[in-house]
Amino acid sequence: MQKNKFNLSTWAIEHQQIVSFVLLMIMSIGYLCYVSLPRDEDPAFTIKTAVISAQWNGATPPDMVNHVTDQIEKTAQALPFIDSIESQTRRGFTEVTVNLKDETPPDQVKPAWALLRKKMHDLAPQLPEGVGEPAVNDEYDATYGTIYGITAEGYSDRQLRDSVEAIQKALLTVPDIGRTQLLGVQDEQITLSFSPRHLALMGLSPETLVSALRSQNAVTPSGELRTDKDIIDISVTGALSTVDRLKDEVITLNGKAIPLTSLVSIVTEAPHSPKPVFHVNGTRAAGIAIAMAPGGNMLEFGNALDDKMAALQATMPVGMKVTKVADQSAVVEKAVSGFTHVLTEAIVIVLAVSFVSLGLRAGLVVAVAIPVVLAMTFAGMALAGIGLQRISLGALIIALGLLVDDAMITIESMVSSLERGETLKKAASSAFTTTAFPMLTGTLVMIAGFIPVGFARSAAGEYCYSLFMVVLISLLSSWVVAVLFSPLSGVWLLPKKRSHPQHTQGRLATAYAALLRFSLTHKLSVVLCSCMLLLASIWASQWLKTEFFPASDRPELLVSLALPEGTTQQETQRVTEKLETFLAKEQGLARYTSYIGTGAIRFYLPMDVQSEAENKAQVIVVAKSLEARFALQERLTTLLNERFHNCVTRVSPLEMGPPVGWPIKYRVEGQDSKKVGIYAQQLAQVLAGNNHIRDINMTSGEPQRAIVVDVDQTKARAAGLTTENISQALNLYYSGNEITKIRNHDRLTALVLRAGQEEQQDTMNLAGMLLRNSTGANIPLAQVASVTWGLESPVIERRNRAALITVQADVTPGENADEVNGELAEAMGVLSRTLPPGYMIAESGASEGSDKGNSSLFDVLPVTLACMLGVMMLQLQSYSRVVLAAMMAPFGFVGVVIALVPTGTPLGFVAILGVIALSGMIIRNAIIMISEVDNNIRRGMGVEESVTHAALHRSRPIMLTACAAIFGMVPIARQVFWGPMAYAIIGGLVAATAFTLTLLPVLMMFLLNSEEKRARKRSC
């Protein structure tokens, strides 16, 4: 019956020409796929956030919240998959951030934003007059990996902007270019500054100037002349087009022509609300941020950009200099080449293990299997749309130690058969019969161990998804190679006869045989010692450090500055330039760029992007090396603490994985914003009591000064004035009103009328400001309103339509955010219990991100266990054997603790992935040994002989595959991202191999003896 079963290895040997042809095709396709795979630093993941913004000029923060923000929030809450809606409302402006749930399927994010945009369009008519349709930014995750900074000493802002826009237009022809954004370009406006008293003496009002200039510059139809044959357009010229033309204007009053320059001063300047400023190495600049289109090859795209920019530089005006301040292609090239080097190291190590343990010829068979499996894996990655990036390359290295397992088991089985005197063909056939399906079962179990990675519904799971896919493809490929190509390679490369085992293998077998005899003789002691070790490791796990994702190993540092609310951008720029003077003297940095009035643009996908605000700045400091970055971070932190007292500062490296920003964050939420502020202060005091916390700050600052104009409506009506008239006059006086736009070629420049600087600074005479009523009379403001100083909250924050203040902080160097949060847990619990109903404290920051990521893994564990148990049952067909194989998995935790605790390596998200995957590796070895024991029983061996023979026979492949996996992990143990997983798997496999070779035979003896006793009882 057995002879009639199809044997894939035998078929391969009998059809060598077909198999060799398929092999060549696989290698060719794999190579072509490898060279064409997209390259990137990190895998793409969906940032499930959109930002809605709306303006209502002149509205106070409370009015904005009640009439605009609340309406937007209420409408957005009807979206599917909503997790939270957060808003920041300032005078005349609101920004609402919509966050979808972490488990939202990526393909549902774009439809959700399309629905959000439609809802905002429908909401627009219901908002107050002057608000308009709220703008939805759903491209929040656009990553501008390439940034060019252009400095131009001696050139005006207008000239610099013209040059940068021309460069931007030329770069749009580069293949695979996506979005582009200009940085630091400044708008210009032509300001007409007037003296209200001077105009009044001339018998003019600001409205007269506005009317005259608007009518002069209006675009209205001037008709067309039709003849019998032609249509001739009539054009009227004389519109305002330049400042010189404007200076020649005259205003007619009572038949007299008055030059405009005698009424106002005319100056070209920046707008009242300035655009963010961009500096390169302390010099004012403009920038071009460039994102690559999806699916492009970053290395090729970067080279094409550089070639285009080099050609453009040759045509630039003298004095303009281009500096590449962000170069994603160079980062990707370094990352890919670094990982390729590590992959090569891993291949060499695995091959060395193969040659040392199996000998030259058998080692060559395993060596041949590696490129074949890699070629199949690259082809599978191309089909799955997976490129070469941090996760997929790391997965290849992890898989490398596993993918040779099947080939090693096949060749070891063939070698054992040859040592028994069988022919090569018979040895190959026997290897398939005895190992193919246990190997397949073990492979499927190992793949099942990675299911939580592939199906975790979270941003962290999406970030690591390619790990699951690459392992799935490579392990399935390794099984196909082991049963199809490796037997054929064995026939080609192994000697036809091999009469005895090698001497080294004999010594190893002898040593293990002695250990096995001891274990089987002292069965109860082995079980008790094993259980005690497991319990001890569980107890010692309390010293395991935890983290979400480690900090990036890139050389950048983010230096964030936040001045008090209400600070002008000019003051923020002054403080930033003060920092730049220190940076200019630093020896350990390569370059630095400053974003003033906003946070840095997203040049790196896992980045916590700051919103635009005049009181904020962010400096990107690039160190010369990773070592220099650590020293620079310490020096900058000390400098900021000592010299920059009037602002909240933070120096931090880039993050890996989904960004969290400040590592310590607590949200205080409730209905009354004043009470929320009180509770937030109490929470900040709790944080201040912990020695491992520094730089405590809150997202809502202290109330700011405000001038309150309280209109007496009775007096205002009697004087022929309204609140609207008064507000418009004040806005014209202090901020300015846009009269019209000057049309000059392809550019529109705002023409703004505003009171002079002297009058604006004279707040003491505000009450004497003259207001023109409907009859043309001038009414002092004091006649209809009182003017007082007051306090106003500059920013109102909300979360899910409740008042919100976030208290955030950093940890001291060397401390872990999760551990610090653990220290705070008791105090936070006490404080939470003192809050009245409707108020709450919620943990955020790194711990919240870690909890979301880890819970998404554990949510999928039942599916993982079901798949593992199902596969095990198909192979073992026995409840007791399935339980026995599954029981071995926890013993790997002994090695995990031994590896992580002494080295201080944290058990983070990636390490947890390794621990879960480790269980599949352990169960795989257990399945193969249990299957071997059952085969021996079926051949008629006794219980002890079956266990002993199986343990001795499987010990060599188990140790070989464990060594291959362990040593294959060594190169990535040095990596910041993969190090914790490598340590966990190395330690776990060492311990698990020892338990599999000692404890498992003992447990099998107990099981088989028990079954034998039950069988004897039934027979009696």
Can you describe this structure?
The protein folds into three domains: 2-41 and 344-548 and 851-1019, Multidrug efflux transporter AcrB transmembrane fold, CATH 1.20.1640; 144-217 and 239-327 and 725-772, Multidrug efflux transporter AcrB pore domain like (Alpha-Beta Plaits, 2-Layer Sandwich), CATH 3.30.70; 553-654, Alpha-Beta Plaits (2-Layer Sandwich), CATH 3.30.70. It has 31 helices and 30 strands. Strands 1, 2, 3, 4, 20, 21, 28, 29 and 30 form a nine-stranded antiparallel sheet that branches. Strands 5, 6, 13, 14, 15, 16, 17, 18 and 19 form a nine-stranded antiparallel sheet that branches. Helix 17 crosses helix 31. The model has no long low-confidence stretch (mean pLDDT 85).
Find the structural class using helix and strand composition: alpha+beta
CATH topology of the largest domain: Multidrug efflux transporter AcrB transmembrane fold
Q: What proportion of the residues form beta strands (DSSP E)? A: 15-25%
- Would you identify the CATH architecture of the largest domain? Up-down Bundle
Q: Kindly give the count of domains.
A: 3
What is the distance, rounded to the nearest whole angstrom, between the alpha carbons of the first and last residues? Answer: 32 Å
Rg on CA atoms, Å: 37 Å
CATH homology superfamily of the largest domain: Multidrug efflux transporter AcrB transmembrane domain
Shape: elongated
CATH structural class of the largest domain: Mainly Alpha
Q: What count of helical segments does DSSP give?
A: 31
Largest sheet: 9 strands, antiparallel
Count every beta strand, where a strand is a DSSP E run of 2 or more residues.
Answer: 30
